[in-house]
Amino acid sequence: MSVPRPLSKAILKKMFLKVLYEHKRPGGCYADHGWWSEGIVRKTIAEFFKIDKLTDSEIIDGLRGVFELEKDGYITQDPSQSDGFKIFSDKGRQVVEQDLDKMELPSVDINELLTNDILKIKVYDDYLSGDYESAIFKGIKLLEENVRKKAAQPPDIIGADLMSKAFKPNGGILTHPCAQTTSESEGFHYLMRGAIMWFKNPSSHRTVVYHDAVQVAQVLCLVNLLLDMVEECK
To answer: 161-215: per-residue pLDDT in tens?
Structure first.
C-alpha cells in the first residue's frame, strides 16, 4: 500500500513490525541480517517499503513507536541479544501477518489522558520507556508537593501525616468546596491518605514492579484528578 508522507507514528509502528517479521520469519527477506531496532527504523523501513529515507522527525517518531510497541506488549527484548534487539510476543505475532492497512495496534496515549502539564512533563519519558515505578512515584510525589505548598507546611511534614494535617475534617487546613458534609470531607481525607500510602510508600522502601501499561495509565489519571481537586481546595 502507498503511505502518505510525513509518516505518522501509528503507521511507522506497523511498518516496523512488518520489517521485524521479515527478519524473524523463516525465509524472510532479512532473515540473514541483524535486527537492531534503531537500524530498522533508520534504514530498513525505507528500503523494504521502497520509499525515500525517513526524515529526522519520522525517525524520532519511529523510535518512540518501538518503545510503545514494547510497552503495549507487541514486542519484547530478545533475551539472547543486547538491548535494542526485539522479538515478537504472542500478541505481536497475532497482528503482524495482517495486511498493513488492516493491522490494529491499540495503545495508551498518555498525552491525551493527562491534562496537568507539569505531571505530563514529569512522567512522560518514564512511562514511554516502561519505567512505570518511576512514573508513578514522580506523579504521586508531585501530588504530595502540591499539597504541602497549598497547606503551607514545612518539608518535614510528609506522606499520610501531611494529608491528615491538610484534609482531616474539623481541623484540617484545606477543604474541598464540593464537600457538603463531614463524611464527604472524611472521604476526601481518606482518598488522599490512601493514594499516598498505596502508591508512594511502597516505592520509598522497596522495588515495586508494574507490568501493565494500561493500569499504570489509570494510576496516573487518578493522580491527575487528585491534583485538580487539590487545586480547587480552599
So the answer is: 999 999 999 999 999 999 999 999 999 999 999 999 999 999 999 999 987 888 9
pTM score, whole prediction: 0.67
Residue 159: helix, strand or coil by DSSP? helix
C-beta separation of 16 from 62 below 8 A: yes
d(CA 197, CA 184): 20
Contact assessment for residue 147 and residue 163, using Cβ atoms and an 8 Å cutoff: yes
Q: What are phi and psi of 32, to 5 degrees?
A: -100, 10
Q: Can the peptide bond before residue 202 be classed as cis, meaning omega within 30 degrees of 0? A: no
C-alpha cell at 176: 474541598
**CATH 1.10.10 residue ranges for the chain:** 9-106
Residue (of 105, 138, 230, 117) closest to 178 by Cα position:
230
Report the alpha-carbon distance of residue 187 to residue 167 in Å, rounded. 10
Reported as a single tens digit per residue, the pLDDT across 31-90 is: 999 999 999 999 999 999 999 999 999 999 999 999 989 988 899 999 999 889 999 998
SS3 51: coil
Question: What region, left, alpha or beta, does residue 152 occupy, with left being phi > 0 and alpha being psi -120 to 50 degrees?
Answer: left
Q: Quick check: 22 and 31 in contact, CB under 8 A? A: yes
What are the backbone dihedrals phi and psi of residue 87, each rounded to the nearest 5 degrees, phi first? -130, 165
Grid coordinates representing 206 are 522497596
User: Could you tell me which CATH number the domain at 9-106 has?
Assistant: 1.10.10
Number of alpha carbons in the 13 Å side-chain half-sphere of residue 88: 19
